[in-house]
Amino acid sequence: MVRIEPLGDDATPESLREVERIFFQASGRTAFANDAARATFHERWLGRYLLHDRAHAFVARVEDGRIAGYLIGSLDDPATAERFDDISYFAEFADLTARYPAHLHINLDPEWRSRGIGVRLIETFVAQAAARRAPGLHIVTGAEARNVNFYARCGFVPLREVAWNGSVVLFMGRDLAMDDPRQYGSSQ
Question: Which has more confidence, 98 or 9?
Fold first, then answer.
């Protein structure tokens, strides 16, 4: 059995280490030029969320206490929040982020994928974002990434692609104003 729970401001060091382990494992990035480059990568894609958005962080915890995955989101429009200025594609998506300001990062340990845990994590954040009146939610992923189909099953619609850092990224949005989470699949 896996339960979804808030990471919380009082997260244990062990829980934070598990989240970071899953983050680096899922990123596929194993080599960095130096410790500073690794720290910059961590801060850009995870650290700033842990610092500013811990209220929107959830973990999937296994009965034995291990963490199978996590989701951390933000309700802030990344095109207007200064802390995201270093991610240049948000400026190109500004018209879309105004409509779909909430966003998330989700990663699962490979052992726990394809069991519906990702859907449960997303639906937990969707419920929270909708309760706080976020009009929409978005993700940005590689246009050819394997997770595009997963996000589509979770109700995200492809809205625009842009070139970024030598690849193509895809903005997918989900309208929360008219959302009925019962319509989305339960397997990842």
Answer: 98
